[in-house]
Each structure stands twice: as structure tokens, then as C-alpha cells.
Design brief:
Layout lengths: L1 E4 L7 E4 L3 H15 L7 E5 L37 H7 L3 H7 L6 H13 L5 E3 L2 E9 L5 E9 L5 E6 L2 E3 L4 E2 L14 E3 L3 H5 L10 E6 L3 H13 L3 E6 L12 H4 L4 H8 L3 H10 L10 H17 L5 E3 L2 E9 L2 E8 L5 E6 L1 E4 L3 E2 L2 H5 L7 E6 L5 E3 L7 E3 L4 H4 L9 H35 L1
């Protein structure tokens, strides 16, 4: 059953997803309205039952990898009441945080900050709604001035809402290597995105011995290795990676300048080939890299094994996984050594895939609009390029790395990007309203004549 809500009174904006990106946009829209801008009727739909940012990966070792000053708003409006500093003040921890002497809060605290901000927009958000698709509402003359956003609520009912604009901020989707296609929904093989809930069902959580493989060479893989080593003494861990070593993230001051708002302009204004070169050049700031302190901790763990002569964990570098199969109730991985060409089979009780994320969910949600869009390309303000008939602006956040640079999927850009989108949204919705009024006036004049 599909429920329709006020089909004749569309929202000004529906945001799909209410993670940090759309939460930053909610702040920007509210602050613009408070400063004399247009007050938008905005609604944000979130598939999770409540606000939780990476909640399944918040192990004790998880720390934010950027400064707390790069929160949802400070770089755009340092005096905002939605800042991380104001959050600390409101919770009576400002002095205590200063005493820590760090720019990097733990991710658990940052999640609590995001929940604190989200609670202040409770009236504009709906949780437990999975958006299924966005459909055009086609007028008699072929123009599209409204969109239908179809979602499914927790009762399994489809809900349809109309809107004058949409912004998609649904984040990444766990990437599963092809070798593991046969283990879909198998509790023994899971992506790091489900780490805590999946580990709670494993035998090691009851103190039983297990052999676990962690596949990947990035921060998530390193955090999983450390957590398993520290908190599950009956677990043996094999860390399996294609690379020869764990590489440290480059967060030096000059390199960090690529995450500033000015760098977005530089990247966007380059020819496509130059954009690709810039992204390749700085790839090691964000992908398949690990904080240096975690690398040192892992190396120390493996070194102490050599001293003791007890090899609990293994570091299997330069390995590719050729196949994964079920053998005698365990997951058997066929590994090839890229240096020697030799192969070996290893069996595990569980496999954790710290294999990154894909960013294609916007294409699936907006598939009904595909014929109006220019292959999902965006302008500088993150609006999808479209045919003139599509008069409803459609924006995306977190899917434009190829055109806006590496910062597009990171927290660093949120304050600037949300401000740019809020300004563009106000301008373009006002333009659509004027065009609609002019069209109606011409139609009325034609009828009167």
C-alpha cells in the first residue's frame, strides 16, 4: 500500500539520507533563514531507525582523522551554535577536552556530537524510511516541476511525498570482492561496516577460539586487527592484503591543503585529464592508508610474537584471493603470492572484508530521471546537469570526487559545500517559481484572448 502525503503541497526540499552531509545542509538552510534568507520546508529521510554514524564500526581504537574544527559548520560560521566546541560546552566537557591536548576526538564522541545536532532537527527528519526511488511528475506540456520521492517505512508500507527539489546524500555502499559472491548473507563473511553487530554473533564473543581473516590494507582493516588482538585473546588473525606493506596516511600540512574549499575550485576548473592526475597524485591521503600510530602498534604486536616464538597472528602481504569456498563448515581462501606465484589454501571461521565502499546508490535512486540527466554529471554547486524540462533541481553530495576532488567524500568539505548548495537551492527554486508564474500568466492570457 502506498500512502500519499499532501500531494498538492510539495515540500521545497527532500533530503535522502541524514548523515553528516545532509545534517550540515540542514544547519546551512536554517542559518540562512535566520539571517534573512528564505525559510525552506525541508524534510530529511533516513533509513536507520535513529541517528547513528558508523555505529557498527565504533571500536575503542577509532579516532577521528581530521581536526574537530572541521566539524559540520565551524569553517563556514565559527560562531554557530551547532559547532563541536559548543557541543562540548553544552555537555560540560570543554575544559576536559582541552586538557586532552588533541585535535582529534574519538569517533564515539563525534557520533554523539552528530546525534546532538540531529536532535535539534527532529521536526525535519523521519527515521526508519528507506527511499526506493525518485520519480518525475510530468505535466501536460512535458515539464517536470515536482518529483515523487517513494520510500518504505518500518511497517513495510510505501510512502509517496512530492517535492520541488531533491538532494541525495546516501554515502557509500560496502564493496564486496567477486570471490565472496557466494557468501551473501552468510554470517561467517561480513563487511567491516557491520563489524560490531557481526562480531557479537561469533563464537569468540563467548570465549571460544576462532581463526579470522581480515582482508584489506586501510584504516578499517588496521582497526579490526587491533580490536581482535586486544579484545579477543582466543582469536588468531591473518591480515591479508594485496599491497607489500601498510602505507601511512599523508596528513602533513601542505598536503592537507588539498582538502580546503579553495582546492575544490582548482580541481573543478581543470580539464578532466588533469583532474584524474591530481586525484592519483594524492590518492594516498585517503585510500588504502593507515594512521602511523596504528601501523606501529601492529608492527610491535608481530615483533613480540617473534620474541616469544608464539605466532598467534600472521601478516600476509602481496596476496590476492583467487577464490573463496565452503570446506567442512569453514571458509577456505585460495591465496596467490604475487611475488613468487605460489598458491596456498587457508581456512577460517570468519572473514572480515575491510574492502572499502562503492558510490553508486544515487544512480539507482534517480534511475527514473535518467532520461533527463546528463550522465549524472554535476555543475560546480553539485546540481545534476539536466534537460530544460526537468525544472526541479536535483543535488548530490559525496558522489563527485571525479569532478570536485578527493575531499568530496570526506568531512572536511561539509561546511563549505552545504553553504554553496543552500545558496544555489535558494536561487534556483526562486527561478523555478518565477518561471512557473510566468508560464501560468501566459496560459491565462491565452485563454482570455
Amino acid at each position: 500500500m502506498t500512502q500519499h502525503f499532501n500531494p498538492t503541497a510539495p515540500h521545497d526540499l527532500i533530503g535522502i539520507g541524514f548523515g553528516p552531509s545532509n545534517l550540515a545542509l540542514a544547519i546551512a538552510l536554517q542559518e540562512r533563514a535566520e539571517q534573512g534568507g528564505k525559510a525552506f520546508d525541508a524534510l530529511f529521510l533516513e533509513r536507520q531507525p535513529d541517528y547513528n554514524w558508523h555505529g557498527n564500526t565504533l571500536v575503542a581504537q577509532s579516532e577521528l582523522q581530521i581536526s574537530f574544527l572541521k566539524d559540520l559548520v565551524t569553517l563556514r560560521n565559527p560562531s554557530s551554535r551547532f559547532s563541536f566546541v559548543n557541543y562540548l560546552k553544552a555537555h560540560g566537557r570543554l575544559v576536559d577536552f582541552i586538557n586532552l591536548g588533541t585535535f582529534y576526538p574519538c569517533r564515539m564522541e563525534y557520533n554523539d556530537y552528530l546525534r546532538w545536532v540531529a536532535a535539534q532537527f527532529a521536526g525535519q527528519s523521519r527515521y526508519g524510511e528507506q527511499v526506493l526511488r525518485v520519480e518525475p511528475v510530468i505535466e501536460a506540456d512535458g515539464r517536470v516541476q515536482r518529483l515523487n520521492v517513494i520510500s518504505q517505512n518500518q511497517q513495510g508500507c510505501e510512502v509517496s511525498r512530492q517535492t520541488r527539489s531533491v538532494i541525495v546524500s546516501t554515502g557509500g555502499t560496502p564493496k564486496i570482492p567477486p570471490a565472496f559472491a557466494g557468501f551473501k548473507d552468510d554470517p561467517r563473511v561480513f563487511h567491516h561496516a557491520r563489524y560490531l553487530s557481526a562480531m557479537a554473533t561469533q563464537a569468540c564473543s563467548r570465549g571460544e577460539p576462532m581463526r579470522i581473516a581480515v582482508v584489506g590494507a586501510g584504516q578499517s582493516a588496521a582497526e579490526a586487527f587491533i580490536d581482535l588482538s586486544d579484545n579477543f585473546p582466543n582469536v588468531q588473525v591473518d591480515m591479508i592484503l594485496r599491497a607489500a606493506v601498510l602505507k601511512p596516511a599523508d596528513d602533513s600540512p601542505f598536503v592537507n591543503e588539498i582538502f580546503g574549499p579553495d582546492y575544490t575550485d582548482l580541481v573543478f576548473n581543470q580539464p578532466e585529464t588533469e583532474r584524474e592526475r591530481l586525484i592519483r597524485e594524492y590518492h594516498n591521503t585517503n585510500y588504502s592508508v593507515v594512521d602511523l600510530d596504528l601501523i606501529e602498534r601492529i608492527y610491535a604486536i608481530l615483533y613480540r610474537q617473534k620474541v616469544s616464538g608464539i605466532e598467534r597472528h600472521a601478516f600476509l602481504c602481496r596476496r590476492i584471493i583467487e577464490s573463496a569456498s565452503d570446506v567442512d563448515g569453514r571458509v577456505q581462501l585460495q591465496l596467490r603470492d604475487l611475488a613468487t606465484g605460489s598458491t596456498e589454501a587457508r581456512r577460517y571461521d570468519a572473514v572480515i572484508l575491510a574492502t572499502g565502499y562503492e558510490r553508486r546508490s544515487h544512480r539507482e535512486l534517480l534511475a527514473p530521471l535518467k532520461d533527463y540527466l546528463d550522465d549524472f554529471r554535476v555543475d560546480r554547486d553539485y546540481q545534476l546537469l539536466a534537460r530544460p524540462e526537468l525544472e526541479t533541481p536535483v543535488f548530490i553530495q559525496g558522489f563527485s570526487q571525479h569532478s570536485h576532488g578527493l575531499s568530496d567524500t570526506l568531512l572536511s568539505v561539509l561546511p563549505a559545500r552545504s553553504g554553496e548548495i543552500a545558496a544555489a537551492l535558494e536561487q534556483r527554486l526562486e527561478g523555478v517559481s518565477q518561471s512557473h508564474a510566468l508560464h501560468e500568466a501566459r496560459a491565462l492570457h491565452s485563454v482570455s484572448a
